[in-house]
Structure formats: structure tokens, C-alpha cells
Design brief:
- A hairpin with a 2-residue loop joins strand 2 (21-25) and strand 3.
- Strands 2, 3, 5, 6 and 7 form a five-stranded antiparallel β-sheet that branches. The protein has a four-stranded mixed β-sheet with strand order 4-1-8-9.
- With 114 residues, the chain is mainly β.
- It has one helix and nine strands, in the order ββββββββαβ.
């Protein structure tokens, strides 16, 4: 299979708790993640830009390089907590959410068949 895994965890927060975040890869929505949830996405190998968004607010983009057998664990949370949820959408909508890499794992024993 020519895919890597992006595992996205959204921290549990009070603000926007009932809303889902859209998960965007290279400008296309690949799914959603709910409050306090973890979701796995299979993404084709190679270089990708990923971010999360809700309405007009979003996170900054992350550049990921997916390899065979790789799992990129990402965490997203509000930037600035409840106060950030109120203020950031108006003066920094592209930084309302923080998206960061928690870990990258590559299966060292996986060998692709040539």
C-alpha cells in the first residue's frame, strides 16, 4: 500500500466543543476530527501540506513528508485557550488553531516489494 498515516488528535476544549474541525491536505478536505477525538487518515506517499479549519479560522500549514510505513502523530488545539477562541478569529484567523507534530514513527522492518 502506497500510503502513510496521519494520526490527528484534537485536545478537549470548552470553546467550539460541539463543532468538528475539517482536516485539509493539499487544499482538499480529507475528513473531520471532533473535540477530544483521535482520527487516522491514510495519505498517499510524498510531500503534503496539512492544516485544520473551521469556517474562516484555521491553523498554519504543516509540511509533511510521508514515507512507506510512516505514522505522523499530530495534535491540534486552540491557540490561547478560551480568550484566543474569542479574539484570534478577528485579528489572526490563520492562527486560531495550533497544529503541531507530536511524533513521527517509521516501521524500520517494513520493506517494500520491488
Amino acid at each position: 500500500m502506497n500510503c502513510g498515516v496521519v494520526r490527528l488528535t484534537r485536545k478537549t476544549e470548552f470553546a467550539y466543543a460541539a463543532r468538528r474541525l475539517a482536516v485539509m491536505v493539499d487544499g482538499k478536505r480529507v475528513g473531520f476530527v471532533g473535540n477530544g477525538k483521535t482520527v487516522d487518515f491514510s495519505i498517499p506517499l510524498g510531500s503534503h501540506e496539512i492544516w485544520v479549519s473551521m469556517d474562516w479560522v484555521r491553523s498554519a500549514s504543516l509540511h509533511l513528508e510521508l514515507q512507506v510505513g510512516s505514522i505522523h502523530e499530530l495534535i491540534t488545539r486552540l491557540n490561547g485557550g478560551l480568550i484566543g477562541a474569542i479574539l484570534k478569529p478577528y485579528y489572526e484567523p490563520k492562527e486560531t488553531y495550533i497544529l503541531e507534530v507530536a511524533a513521527v514513527k517509521v516501521d524500520q522492518y517494513f520493506r517494500p516489494i520491488s
